[in-house]
TrEMBL record:
Cross-referenced PANTHER family: 39S RIBOSOMAL PROTEIN L33, MITOCHONDRIAL (PTHR47037), LARGE RIBOSOMAL SUBUNIT PROTEIN BL33M (PTHR47037:SF1)
Protein name: Large ribosomal subunit protein bL33m
Major localisation: mitochondrion
SUPFAM superfamilies associated with the record: Zn-binding ribosomal proteins
Swiss-Prot/TrEMBL GO biological process terms: translation
One matching Pfam family: Ribosomal_L33
Gene Ontology cellular component list: mitochondrion; ribonucleoprotein complex; ribosome
Subcellular locations according to the entry: Mitochondrion
Domain of life: Eukaryota
Species in which this protein is naturally found: Lentinus brumalis
Length: 59
């Protein structure tokens, strides 16, 4: 029986650096670099830097 392989992509959470708690969920390659992007945060009505954080499980 062969071992189960891991997925090529993973889902990550992009969290706003404006500390609003707003986030985007996106996919990236498992072996790729960590993501950072400038995107729109509707809570501050402005474009801000979003950085990757660990995806947390729902409670």
């Amino acid at each position: 029986m062969a071992a189960k392989s891991k997925a090529r992509t993973i889902i990550v959470r992009m969290v706003s650096t404006a500390q609003t708690g707003y986030f985007y969920a996106t996919q990236r390659l498992r072996l790729g670099p960590r993501l950072a992007a400038v995107k729109y945060d509707p809570r501050v009505k402005s474009r801000v830097l979003f950085v990757e954080s660990k995806k947390t499980a729902k409670k």
